[in-house]
Amino acid sequence: MLGGTVALTAPRGYCPDESTLREGPTGAFVLYGPCRGLGKPGPRAQMPAVLTAAVAPTGGAPLASAEGIAALAEFLSTERGKSALSRTDSGAEVEVQSLQTTSDLILVRARDGATGDLAPDYWRAIFVAADALVTVTVSGTRTPDSTSDLSPADGRALIIDFVAAIRAANTAAPAPATTPAGDTTATTDLPQPEAKGLALFFKRLL
Question: In the chain, what is the greatest distance between 2 CA atoms, to the nearest angstrom?
C-alpha cells in the first residue's frame, strides 16, 4: 500500500476481499473476512468477524509519538472526533463506549447505528506503522435481535492480534506498547489539535 511503503495483513484465517480494495495517493482501504467464507484456502478463522484496514500518509503530522497519539485521542473524545469515527457524514449515531490509549496505540469500542449488516458494536484501533497512520476495525455481523455474534472480549482480542500482524509485517514499525489495560481518555495539557484539519485527515481513512 502507498507505493509499497506500508504492508497490510490480517490474523491467520482472514483473507482480503479484493473487490473492496481502494487505493490512491491519499490512502488505501481493504476489507478482510474468514478465508473459507470467501472461498479461499487457509486455516479456519478464530471467530466469525469482518475486519477492515485503512492507511493514509501522515503528511508530516507528528503522530508517531506519545504526544501525537495523546492529541489524537483527545480529539476523538470531542464531538468532531465522534463524527470522524462515524461510517457516515454525521456522528449522530455514534456512541464511544470506551477509549483506551498507550504511548503508541488508541483502542476504541464504539456503537454506530449506521452499519448495515454489521453489528452496531465494533472495535477500532489507531496506530502508526511505517510512517503512515493505520486504522483497523473488527465487527461482528448483526443478529436478528440487532446484537453481535462477536463478544466484546473476543472482538478486543482479535483487534489486538490484527494490530500485531500489521506491525510484524512492517519491520520499521515501533515495538508495540503494553496493551491498554483500562479506559484512559487523554486529558493532558498538550497543545490542542486543530479540529477541522484532524477531522478531514481522519475521514480519509474511512
Answer: 50
Q: pTM for the complete prediction?
A: 0.78
Distance CA 33, CA 6 (A): 20
Edge-first strand order for the sheet with 94-102 is 14-24, 27-34, 50-57, 132-141, 118-129, 105-112, 94-102
Other CB atoms within 10 A of residue 181 CB: 8
How many CB atoms are closer than 10 A to CB 206? 16
Place of cell 463506549: 97
What pLDDT tens digit does each residue of the chain (206 aa) get?
Answer: 566 688 999 999 999 999 999 988 888 999 999 999 999 998 999 888 999 999 988 766 666 677 888 888 888 888 888 777 776 655 566 888 999 999 889 999 998 875 667 888 899 999 988 888 899 999 988 766 556 678 899 999 999 999 999 999 997 544 444 456 554 333 333 333 344 444 444 544 44
Cell 456512541 -> residue: 95
How far is 131 from 79, CA to CA, in rounded Å?
Answer: 27
195-203 and 66-76 are packed helices; what angle lies between their axes, rounded to 10 degrees? 90
Q: In the numeric block, which cell numbers belong to residue 26?
A: 491519499
- Which neighbouring-strand residues pair with 28? 23, 55
